[in-house]
């Protein structure tokens, strides 16, 4: 088991290989199809700094945050998968979700020394490993707003890294 603490360094991301099992601790962002396009617009507008969260070394978990807890959504939804390349370019090192990504997305991860990890849909387990949650932006989206959560040893498996995928 590889223990990762946010922010994730370039060196730590470079060492991750497809099939590695990891435990992620620290603060991570949570967002899915409703909010990620808004974050991309902020990157494009040069206003992403207004979030108060540095994207460099960050983890983005493809999920909503509700009273029921957190659990992965499909990362291959158009709005989510199309966010992976620009978020990686902006410094995000690890994308968490579920499902198979397109070859082009895997190649983009390689270009920006970022990786994708799959996380099993285990809402109860993840709830017990989440100690803080707050809305960072877009509160009008409710549970789909951009959240920052503090996690302790979130389990995941590296699903895409260095141009390879566990789905190949």
Walk me through what this model shows:
With 168 residues, the chain is of the alpha/beta class. It has a single domain (2-161), classed as Fe-S hydro-lyase, tartrate dehydratase beta-type, catalytic domain (fumarase, Alpha-Beta Barrel), CATH 3.20.130. It is built from five helices and eight strands, in the order E-H-E-H-E-H-E-H-E-H-E-E-E. The chain has helices at 10-15, 36-45, 78-89, 103-111, 123-128, and strands at 2-5, 21-30, 59-61, 94-97, 115-118, 130-137, 146-161, 164-165. It is globular and about 40 Å long. The relative contact order is 0.24. The model has no long low-confidence stretch (mean pLDDT 93).
- Low-confidence residue ranges: none
Radius of gyration from the CA trace?
Answer: 14 Å
Average pLDDT figure: 93
* Element-level helix/strand string: EHEHEHEHEHEEE
**Roughly how many Å apart are the termini?**
23 Å
- What is the number of E strands? 8
> Under the CATH scheme, which class?
Alpha Beta
Please report the number of helical segments.
5
Give the CATH H-level superfamily. Fe-S hydro-lyase, tartrate dehydratase beta-type, catalytic domain
Shape: globular
Strand content: 25-35%
Question: What fold name stands as the CATH topology?
Answer: fumarase
CATH architecture: Alpha-Beta Barrel
Structural class: alpha/beta
Structural domains: how many: 1
Summarize the main sheet.
Answer: 5 strands, mixed, barrel
Q: Report strand order across the widest sheet.
A: 2-3-4-5-7
């Amino acid at each position: 088991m590889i223990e990762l603490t946010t922010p994730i360094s370039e060196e730590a991301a470079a060492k991750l290989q497809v099939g590695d099992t990891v435990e992620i601790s620290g603060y991570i962002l949570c967002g899915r199809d409703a909010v990620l396009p808004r974050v991309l617009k902020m990157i494009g507008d040069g206003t992403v700094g207004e979030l108060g969260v540095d994207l460099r070394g960050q983890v983005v978990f493809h999920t909503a945050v509700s009273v029921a807890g957190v659990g992965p959504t499909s990362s291959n939804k158009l709005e989510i998968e199309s966010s992976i390349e620009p978020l990686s370019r902006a410094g995000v090192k690890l994308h968490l979700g579920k499902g198979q990504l397109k070859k082009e997305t895997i190649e983009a991860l390689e270009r920006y020394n970022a990786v994708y990890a799959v996380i099993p849909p285990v809402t109860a387990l993840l709830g017990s490993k989440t100690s803080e949650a707050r809305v960072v932006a877009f509160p009008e989206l409710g549970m789909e707003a951009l959240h920052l959560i503090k996690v302790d040893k979130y389990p995941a498996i590296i699903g895409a890294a260095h141009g390879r995928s566990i789905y190949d």
